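#struct-help
A.M.: can someone run this one for me? Single chain, 388 residues.
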Amino acid sequence: MSSAPDHHVESEHRVTVLELFFDLVFVFAITQVTSFLAHEPTAGGLGRGMLLAAALWWAWVAYAWLTNTLGASATAARVTVLLAMAAMLVASLAVPEAFGDHAVIFAISYAVVRVLHVLLYYLATRGQDGIRGAVVRLAPPLLVGSALLIAASFASGPARLALWCVGLAIDYAGPVLAGSRGWRVHANHFVERHGLIIIIALGEAIVSIGVGAAGLDLEADVLSAALLAMTVAGALWWAYFDSVSLAAEHTLARTEGDAQAALARDAYSYLHMPMVAGIILVALGLKKSLAHPGDALAVVPSLALYGGAAIYYAAHVAFRRRILGTWSGARALAVVVLSAATFVGPRVPALTSLALVAALCVALVVWETAVYRRWLATRAGPRSRKPA
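D.P.: on it. Structure tokens below:
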């Protein structure tokens, strides 16, 4: 494995317009998952929606690694990414019936996205034995996982769900089983790419506010609910993009070799998935709250609103522990309080639920801003420190 690139050179490796273009399809995929959950607000629908989110996230992660390693300027890379976009679009269109009439379409188009990734990686790393070896080790669980999703599309009932779970488990286990040897990471690019996907997910939460309020009279309760929902989204944004993310980027850039690849894999590929899943759930809760702010939330939307925020912050706690080696007591407490408050949702008006979640999220921002005030004052300068 080659030595870590010079930090100054690495800082010039930024996210390309092709990568941003690819992410537009993922925007649509997230929207489709949120719509799927909104139309199936049951425990079973919640589980299936999270399986869809996990599959789509893992497909996006694969291309984040691909363009981080190889860049996206070569013609072959551009063509392959565009083909993958087409396949991802088809898979996204099939999301509403991914466990029903369009199961085969979803599974096959998803498999095409995954196979194109491996194929381009293999062909583009000729003469780079380290990376090519890593791709070869990763391919079997990836292909087996995709094959099981295709098999699931021809099954029904519990067998279909079982095959989905086994297929995704094998696919997700692949990078750990294959090891981090051979992979290269451009830290600044990698961190920027994942930060942008968090913004995309939060964008879906904001869109859900508009969708939830669509067709309603803009009376005081609706406007209040919309402003509270926006407050929640803003606080979730703040929690990600302030102190810890900057320190994490610096830590990843300083780490070298196989340890850097393992850190990027664990902290970003794995632990960002529950962050995105949590945002998707919050978006569902916001959408349902805006539709009827004076009524109590049903059990599943309440679980989505409170529990989604809890999952988001729990992922932050794990992320900070993995990449900085420290714990966030404030965020851990927020997880506990939000989880306990889930039972309040079905008993109070949705507007009250929004106010409670917004208050908790803002309180966390205020506390952390006060605690990290001195460090935050330097965040625009050299990234040489981390929060205490």
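A.M.: thanks! The radius of gyration is 21 Å.
D.P.: also worth noting: The chain has two domains: 1-184, 185-380.
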